[in-house]
Amino acid sequence: MFTAKSILKVCRQETNEIDTCGECYLNANTRTDWFVDVCAQPHLLLWAKLKGFPYWPAKAMGPGQGLSHVNVRFFGEHDRAFVPIKDCFLYSEQDPNTQTGKRSARELADCIKEVEVHIEKIRTKVGAFKYAKFKTPYEPTEELQQLEMMIPGVMDYMKRQQALVPKPSLQYKIVKTADNHLSIIKKACTTESSNDSDHSVSPHK
Question: How far apart are CA 171 and CA 68, in angstroms?
């Protein structure tokens, strides 16, 4: 049974996700093919490494815990993690791993295919994409400069998006279901009754 504290915790987590990237939050909870899309403010691509795992393709989502970590979301399973900045490189065409197991190598190859689809969408929307030089350190204080280096013209693209595309309307609410689970529900339109227009959406975490 959910307590007030557990509900508050979930609400804080959801609010943090919205603050991180409203587009990602909305798309992650409404679609399955969302991760390859390009946001109005594209995310910097990285090779990020967690302890005990190989370097893995990821999107930089924003500051992490303190000044020493970055909040990332990995390609593949789209897991979230706070990764030490010292263990992140800008995304290069060359894999920074010295060796990986057979299973990891297969999974990594599939992830790289997903990255390539995302990069192609960047080229289509923004106009260009450049791989970083091998093992270029990620510098969060220079993220916009690094983003412009990898995606030439991205600053102009973001200005156009801000001017022409409104932020997604997040017409969703969190409710407790009959079986004591939390679910994201689409709010009813003002012209419709809530019983007819509420739609349950299972959150993708």
Answer: 35
Q: Phi, psi (5° rounding) for residue 34?
A: -75, -25
| DSSP assigned state of 6 | H
Weakest mean pLDDT among 82-91, 100-109, 127-136, 166-175:
166-175
Q: What is the pLDDT of residues 175-188, one digit of tens each?
A: 777 777 667 777 76
Q: For residue 26, which phi and psi values (nearest 5 degrees)?
A: -65, -50
- Write out the DSSP string of 66-87: TTSEEEEEETTT--EEEEEGGG
**CA–CA dist 48, 53 (Å, integer):** 10
Among the residue ranges 10-14, 33-37, 138-142, the one predicted with the least confidence is 10-14
The token pair that represents 49 in the structure block: 């490494």
Q: Decide: 34 and 24 in contact? Cβ < 8 Å.
A: yes
